[in-house]
Amino acid sequence: MTRDTERPASGMVTALEPLAEASGGTWIAHGSGTADRRCVDAGDGVAVPPDQPRYRLRRIWSSDAECDGYYNNLANRGLWPLCHVAFVPPLWDPEHWHTYRLVNQRFAEAVLQEAGDGPALVFLQDFHLALVAPILRRANPLLTLVQFWHVPWPNPELLRTFPYADELVEGLLGNDLLGFQIPAHAANFQQAATQVGCNGHPTRVATYTISIDYDHWNRLAACPAVEAAMERWRQRLGAIQPDLLGVGMDRLDYTKGLPQRLRAVDQLLLQRADLRGRFRFMQQLANSRGHIGEYGALHAELEALAEEINRRWGDGHWQPVLSAASSVSSLI
């Protein structure tokens, strides 16, 4: 069987895959679509990359209803806007929380199957798996449990709006080590943990600003495929002044301030008549979570804004905003 692989538009994958490759460990992740099921072995695993395996990917399967409750709703329509203090009301539903707990249990069972009864290092990731650590600790006290919370941690006033905040905090306190991006987020969590109380297990909370594999991306930037993509963009943009070109490259998400960015371009052209016909702004978007209503609405809003700005300021030879959405693979 021929297997084609594609890296998703995910900062987490970009940061963590080098660790998985260097350790030769097992990465447990949700599987979706028929291709994921066809590629796994009898143990629901697959070697990555297929031609020169450097780590094992273990798949977890969930029903459409479970994915909707756990991932689309509790995680991405609840915890995501809560943690980012986005001006989008978080969605809380008891049924979604029930499904979140169920899927966390399923991930924990998969970890225990992979780790066995002996000691092992388990590295949990982000707000999707906040309840896994205590399950693992009860089942196998020999495990070393580490979790990194990739998104902000809200202050106590905001956290109070989450009906299950105490259980969320207690779940994270099941880890031996819990990492955050910046000290302010770690401090917010520590304040929340103080209010919840001690579970008798020591948890170290620390700051570890995440990074990427610089050498890999530096080499990639110099490869022929990137140069060819840059030439295509030069042809598409036409004659431009480099110092009058604005570029945005983002995952499509309402926490990125994308509509505000385009409105800033509109204000710039309103206030600076000398830049009309000269300045251009290119916004490249990596499609994300299109099955969630808020993301589809955001995409439509951005398209309407770009069209409105181009109609207001553009002419037959010059358009100030060039917006494009694509998968990450087509960016290069």
Would you spell out the secondary-structure blueprint of this structure?
Elements: H1 11-23, E1 26-30, H2 33-39, E2 45-48, E3 55-60, H3 64-84, H4 94-115, E4 121-125, H5 132-139, E5 144-148, H6 156-159, H7 165-172, E6 177-180, H8 183-196, E7 204-207, H9 214-221, H10 224-237, E8 245-251, H11 258-271, E9 280-286, H12 293-313, E10 321-326
Parallel strand pairs: 1-3, 4-5, 5-6, 6-7, 8-9, 9-10
Antiparallel strand pairs: 2-3
What does this structure look like?
The chain is an alpha/beta fold. The chain folds into two domains: 62-207, 3-Layer(aba) Sandwich (Rossmann fold); 224-331, Rossmann fold (3-Layer(aba) Sandwich), CATH 3.40.50.2000. The protein has helices at residues 11-23, 33-39, 64-84, 94-115, 132-139, 156-159, 165-172, 183-196, 214-221, 224-237, 258-271, 293-313, and strands at 26-30, 45-48, 55-60, 121-125, 144-148, 177-180, 204-207, 245-251, 280-286, 321-326. The model has no long low-confidence stretch (mean pLDDT 88).
